[in-house]
Design brief:
Elements (H helix, E strand, L loop, with lengths): L1 H29 L5 H23 L6 H30 L10 H23 L5 H26 L5 H26 L7 H30 L9 H26 L11
Bound molecules: fe (ii) ion (2 copies).
């Protein structure tokens, strides 16, 4: 059990600390050159999460769980600080105090939601209190479907408007994921009655199909951007970043699917 705790903690921290590090870079690139204080803060968070990432990579599954517990707490504090920073930036943008800066409000809100998600994961890990499977399936999908819908919107808005075909494809994904998100919300409001194994299984299957096709679209976009074959203001690292988040969501969907259909899991027994 301790080994599982250490492995899960390290997986989460390795994935999300790199994401937090990259958010710091993206925010920095969107500030105006005179916003030196904000740029310095972003640089500080970049180094902070880079060092957390290195430390997480140096630990192994054999590391003492107590060391990992303290590490989780430390990372939790760092994530709380970057969340505050992101919300402060959002406030400045929405009060029109950064005219001409290039971070969309929705993007800043989005990266703060990801920080909040990471922080909650760390809390859950340290408390050893996981949500029952049927609740986790709905909540995680509601969270990630919105993240995916946002990504499609960012891609559409950061592509050059002359890339008409790609903009149209990105807009179609945006609509598709908005719809999936509403479906997930409907399932959410119908719970607990909606939490039957067949409905949850179908929900996962349907989401997987769309996430796979969005993931493939992001992979293509990443390749085209890296090869400088399309016109956009998308940083190649941002293209890779949103691709990795789609892969992460697919991994979570598969994990849920295995728990639902594989060997009976304690939490789902009552729904089976
Ligand atoms: Fe992100
Ligand atoms: Fe994201």
């Amino acid at each position: 059990m301790s080994d599982a705790f250490v492995a899960r903690s390290l997986d989460e921290i390795r994935f999300w600390s790199r994401i937090m590090k990259e958010h710091s870079l993206f925010l920095k690139l969107g500030f105006r050159c005179e916003d030196t204080q904000l740029i310095n803060e972003a640089n500080h968070f970049y180094s902070l999460f880079e060092s957390i990432e290195h430390r997480a990579n140096a630990f192994t599954v054999g590391t003492d769980p107590n060391v990992i517990r303290r590490f989780n707490e430390e990372v939790h504090t760092a994530v709380s600080y970057i969340w505050v920073f992101k919300r402060k930036v959002l406030g400045l943008i929405l009060r029109c105090q950064l005219p001409g800066a290039n971070n969309f409000p929705l993007l800043v809100d989005h990266v703060s939601r990801e920080a909040n998600y990471f922080r909650n994961r760390l809390t859950e890990l340290n408390l050893g209190r996981l949500e029952p499977l049927p609740d986790a399936i709905i909540d995680e999908n509601v969270f990630f479907l919105r993240i995916m819908a946002d990504h499609a919107k960012f891609i559409s808005h950061l592509l050059d408007p002359s890339e008409r075909k790609l903009v149209e494809q990105a807009n179609n994904f945006s609509q598709e994921f908005d719809q999936l998100l509403f479906q997930a919300k409907d399932l959410e409001s119908m719970r607990p009655q909606s939490q039957t194994a067949p409905l949850l299984d179908q929900f996962l299957d349907q989401n997987r199909v769309s996430v796979k096709s969005l993931r493939d679209f992001k992979r293509t976009a990443r390749e085209l951007i890296e090869a400088c074959r399309i016109k956009s203001i998308i940083h190649p690292l941002l293209a890779d970043h949103v691709f990795r988040e789609a892969e992460h969501f697919l991994f979570i969907i598969d994990m849920f699917e295995n728990s639902l259909t594989g060997k009976p899991v304690q939490a789902i027994n009552q729904f089976g």
